[in-house]
């Protein structure tokens, strides 16, 4: 997993087009004045959130996240967006976005398939405070922009689930064209399963074959730098979505036999149960900080039988019940926001 966020070198120009001065943004965020002059600017999760919070505050435009996320000029697309556009279908585009996004930041795109619809969530793996609302808007607008450009249709989600309180933000309903649920348990954008099967008019296997080797090489290099338990934990986190992964399912995902998997984990001083609990702990902390999910909902997503099982496990990890831990984190986040506003 990447530890820092790569900041697009094109962001400063986009901000200027929208009438926002990059220098003012960096001052407000408390970031170095020469950040955008760096050839490959990268920031921590805390700095990344501060950057987007500052963009919202300085621009005073509640729709700026959507505006930045709906980039239409393909020459400004990064390799991940290009790889998605060249996919044969919307479903494959989403999975390419999720796969290659791992290269650029400590963020995970989680795709959860249901009987009738599929939800897409952005998980901020190293964050200790909730993400800025305009960053959520940008991420969801990015997904919809790829879907509409790829299918050549005004495709809309079935609904948006937002943790923020209801506000007079008509631009969200106008752009996304769907039901918006405020004060939801998590931030998620949902699509009809039938829409995920839509073919992409921009599909181009030949061009994708030209950029895929570089992306795959970077992924392989990243995997080589991870310890084996880290690789296993990352795979488990992708499988934990209301399911209870087994060692057989995990071994299959890693293209290994069960015996080889268990032998490798033992060699590294670990076990399947240990890495499973580590993955659950990381995801539990994310859900408690970044969502308003009830404990029973969180327990379900982590593959526990019931909320009591989750509470017992969390007490072992953190020493206090999850509800108390969540209150502590929110109090800390509120104090940090108060300090930054002063």
UniProtKB/TrEMBL annotation:
Q: Quote the InterPro entries the UniProt record gives.
A: AraC-type_N, Homeodomain-like_sf, HTH_AraC
UniProt domain HTH araC/xylS-type: residue ranges: 230-328
The lineage, from the top, is:
Bacteria, Pseudomonadati, Acidobacteriota, Terriglobia, Bryobacterales
Q: Which UniProt keywords apply?
A: DNA-binding, Transcription, Transcription regulation
**Domain of life of the source:** Bacteria
**Which Gene3D superfamilies does the annotation name?**
Homeodomain-like
- The protein here is known as AraC family transcriptional regulator
Is Isomerase set as a keyword in this record?
no
Gene Ontology CC terms? cytosol
In its UniProt record, a GO molecular function of this protein is: transcription cis-regulatory region binding
């Amino acid at each position: 997993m990447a530890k820092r966020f790569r900041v697009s070198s094109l962001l400063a120009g986009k901000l200027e087009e929208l009438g926002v001065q990059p220098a003012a943004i960096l001052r407000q965020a408390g970031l170095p004045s020469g950040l955008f002059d760096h050839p490959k600017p990268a920031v921590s999760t805390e700095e990344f959130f501060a950057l987007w919070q500052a963009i919202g505050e300085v621009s005073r435009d509640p729709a700026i996240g959507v505006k930045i996320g709906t980039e239409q000029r393909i020459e400004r697309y990064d390799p991940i967006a290009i790889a998605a556009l060249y996919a044969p279908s919307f479903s494959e585009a989403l999975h390419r976005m999720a796969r290659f996004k791992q290269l650029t930041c400590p963020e995970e795109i989680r795709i959860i398939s249901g009987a009738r619809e599929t939800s897409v969530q952005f998980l901020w793996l190293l964050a200790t405070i909730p993400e800025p609302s305009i960053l959520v808007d940008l991420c969801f607008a990015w997904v919809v922009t790829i879907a509409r450009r790829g299918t050549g249709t005004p495709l809309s989600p079935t609904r948006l689930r937002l943790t923020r309180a209801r506000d007079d933000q008509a631009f969200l309903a106008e752009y996304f064209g769907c039901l918006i649920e405020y004060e939801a348990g998590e931030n998620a954008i949902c699509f009809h399963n039938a829409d995920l099967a839509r073919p992409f008019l921009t599909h181009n296997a030949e061009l994708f074959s030209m950029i895929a080797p570089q992306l795959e090489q970077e992924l392989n290099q990243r995997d080589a730098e991870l310890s084996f338990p880290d690789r296993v934990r990352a795979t488990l986190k992708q499988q934990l979505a209301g399911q209870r992964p087994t060692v057989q399912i995990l071994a299959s995902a890693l293209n290994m036999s069960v015996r080889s998997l268990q032998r490798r984990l033992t060699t590294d001083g670990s076990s399947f149960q240990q890495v499973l609990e580590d993955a659950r702990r990381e995801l539990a902390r994310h859900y408690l900080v970044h969502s308003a999910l009830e404990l029973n909902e969180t327990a379900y997503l982590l593959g526990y039988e019931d909320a009591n099982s989750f509470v017992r496990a969390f007490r072992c990890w953190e020493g206090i019940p999850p509800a108390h831990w969540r209150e502590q984190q929110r109090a800390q986040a509120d104090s940090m926001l108060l300090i930054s506003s002063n």
